[in-house]
Design goal:
The protein is an all-beta fold. Helices cover about 0% and strands about 45% of the residues. The chain has a single domain, classed as Jelly Rolls. The strands form 3 sheets. Strands 1, 2, 6, 7, 8, 10, 15, 16, 17 and 19 form a 10-stranded antiparallel sheet that branches. A 7-stranded antiparallel sheet has the order 3-9-18-11-12-13-14, with no helix packed on it. Strands 4-5 form a two-stranded antiparallel sheet.
């Protein structure tokens, strides 16, 4: 989940339909269940997720901090809970992933439907995300077909807005991206919201609460499998033009929580013949 300051205007599109089953239109076929976590137990399922314990003060180009601690990630009341807390010095938060560099891949998939139901923190300074990644995103070849970071949802604002983003060709000088800013969907109401991407071989289609919000093939659609990430990052931002956050984390009332009710994945199966 990298950070850019350019966004595209939103044009709301027709309703979509979550869940599995038949698909009509240009991508006729079916979505069949392939993986899910309903977070019904009392702890994170280690067969499905790596709970991160990674401490990094900041990305060199941003004020975002990834102080991820294992103890900030729990399962409570049927939801994954990622807490952001004050430390004796600074702050910490958490993240889970189905794969990562140097760790076993617990789940990955190319193409299909990826969906999560989440509830955002209520305080400032957060950057929540539901995203997909694979190691080949760092391969620079002028295309995202080998590796694209797919940010199904990233939200860094108290405002009623969220962003879908694609990144390819690494994160240095050759880096390319495309973004769609979504507003007007009631995302600052403190309630639960559903985010998904339908990833086909020739197109990504994004949805917020079953409303289609972006359809794109930017970068050339990724053809390789990605793993799943649910992450929180924390930052220190002002309120002026071009700022991602609305106020610094230092002024937030903590602890605060990013909750995930479920993550569900379906495999896309084209029609026979």
């Amino acid at each position: 989940m990298r950070h850019r300051r350019t966004v595209l205007a939103l044009a709301l599109l027709p309703l979509g339909c979550g869940g599995g089953g038949a698909v009509t239109g240009p991508h006729a076929g079916t979505f069949e269940p392939s993986w899910s976590d309903e977070f019904e137990g009392t702890a994170v399922d280690a067969s499905k997720w790596h709970v991160m314990d990674e401490h990094q003060d900041a990305w060199p180009e941003t004020p975002w901090r990834r102080n991820w601690k294992r103890e900030n990630v729990t399962v409570e009341d049927g939801a994954l809970v990622i807490r952001t807390v004050r430390e004796p010095v600074g702050f910490s938060t958490g993240a889970v992933m189905t794969g990562d560099w140097g760790k076993p891949i617990l789940f990955q998939q190319a193409f299909g439907r990826f969906e999560a139901r989440v509830r955002f923190p209520r305080q400032q300074g957060h950057w929540c995300a539901f995203w997909l990644e694979n190691p080949d995103v760092g391969h620079v070849d002028g295309s995202g077909r080998d590796g694209t970071e797919i940010d199904v949802m990233e939200k860094a604002w108290l405002l009623d807005q969220v962003q879908h983003t694609l990144h390819w060709d690494g994160y240095a000088a050759a880096h390319r991206s495309a973004e769609q800013l979504v507003t007007g969907r009631g995302l600052s109401d403190g309630g639960w919201h559903v985010f998904r991407v339908d990833w086909y071989a020739d197109e990504y289609v994004f949805f917020v609460d079953d409303h289609e919000t972006w359809r794109t093939a930017a970068g050339g659609v990724c053809q390789n499998p990605n793993w799943i990430l649910l992450t929180e990052e924390i930052g220190n931002f002002g309120t002026g033009p071009g700022q991602w956050g609305v106020g610094p984390i230092e002024q937030a009332a903590l602890p605060d929580e990013y909750r995930v009710d479920y993550v569900r994945v379906w495999r896309y199966v084209p029609p026979a013949g």
